[in-house]
User: Fold this.
Amino acid sequence: MKKNIYSIVLTDNVIRAVDAEAYRLGTNRSNLINQILAEHLSCVTPEMQMRNIFDAAEILLHGEMLMVQQNSPSVLMLRTALQYKYRPTVNYKVELEREPKEYMGRLKVQIRTQNMALVNCFNQFFEVISTAEESLFAAFGIRGYKSTVTRDCFTRLLINNPQLNEEKKGAVIGEYLNMLNKAVRNYFSAPDDLQFAISAYSADFAAFINENII
Assistant:
């Protein structure tokens, strides 16, 4: 949504309260005032749209992964523990665009461990996942898939489908995260059988993108 600059006059005590609340929420003065006025006047803001998407995603994710508190309305953070020695955790971070075009945001999956052998397993797994997803998108005639695997982090752009409403977008994100988290857990429960984990995920992902684009 387009933004313009306007001058308003506020009392010092109101500004102090606004700044304190903006700091608590991890935003700035202008964004907070905009949100307060939008809610009061029943206007829809990008922040409200992103919150609706995450609310729908969280319904599907409830009980599957631990929600991590975030102040930013554009970020959803989750965490899962692996059934593996050293008890490593994997973090999932969804960042949405305020004004989505081809992509509605990005997903980052990162493992938290100092064990390099475990990091190498993580990287190997997601390199194969990335290749499998890209191949399946191509088979379905879907363009725009982009992902990278760096040290201990998998990053993937989330394709935007403007025909979906916010609730459906959230449900698609939640379904995809549950499917991916299931594959991660299955792999790390038996890391020597990478092919089995990828085959199972590929079957699930093919069924998923037959109905959903993300």
About this structure: The chain has two domains: 1-43, 46-209. Residues 1-43 form one domain. The mean pLDDT is 88.
